[in-house]
Amino acid sequence: ELQNKKIAILGFGLEGKSSLRFLEKLGIEDITILDKNTIAETKYKNITWDVYLDNLWDYDLIFKSPGVSPFWEKLIAYREKFISQAQVFFENYSGKVIGITGTKGKSTISTLLFTCLEQAWYKVKLVGNIGNPVLDEIDILSPEKYDYIVYEMSSYMLQDFVPNLYIWFLNNIYPCHLDWHYDSMSIYKEAKLNILKNAEY
């Protein structure tokens, strides 16, 4: 679905660079970086750079990094173009994924669960908000599968996205990061609750 599309990467931090590596692995050539900081590294000299938020209409798909809020005034009209690493992962990985979220404590719970499963000799991977971007950690282009993927998910990842999970776990919800969520506790809560809407258990 990504082939022959004009694709932008919005936000060129850790996940943005990972998205670029993934797209290049697929052989995608029409890639533009949109970042508020101009990066003049020579290894990116063959990649197009554009003004941060000025020409979003020009792209078929926009890989949006989690830290970029879709509620910013210049972005609202283009939300249907947004795609995320989490979305690409869940649409192309068929193994059992345990999703964990909450305002506080999700990293601790994710690490504890991962450690317990690993000690029980399961083939398991810990991904998501806790470490490296998921498309760096899991090669969705190969047939390799794990017994379980433990996926720590932030509200940023869950906004406008319902993952296909084997098991969901919601630790707690209280006001946090509301500036990212349009200063709305209800929007923040709905983002968190997306974790349970399409889970098996």
Secondary structure elements and their pairing?
Elements: E1 7-10, H1 14-25, E2 31-34, E3 48-50, E4 61-64, E5 82-83, H2 85-92, E6 97-101, H3 106-119, E7 124-128, H4 134-137, E8 148-152, H5 155-158, E9 167-170, H6 185-193
Parallel strand pairs: 1-2, 1-4, 2-3, 4-5, 6-8, 6-9, 7-8
Explain what you see.
This protein has 201 residues and is of the alpha/beta class. The protein contains 6 helices and 9 strands; from the N terminus they run βαββββαβαβαβαβα. It has a 5-stranded parallel sheet with strand order 3-2-1-4-5. Strand 1, helix 1 and strand 2 (31-34) form a beta-alpha-beta unit. The longest helix is centred in the middle third of the chain and has 14 residues, at 106-119. It is globular.
Number of helices: 6
What is the SS-derived class? alpha/beta
Strand proportion: 15-25%
What does the oligomeric state look like here?
A: single chain
Shape: globular
Beta-strand segment tally: 9
What is the typical, i.e. mean, pLDDT?
91
Residue windows where pLDDT falls under 50 for at least 5 positions = none
The largest pleated sheet is described as: 5 strands, parallel
- The order of strands across the largest sheet is 3-2-1-4-5
Helix content: 25-40%
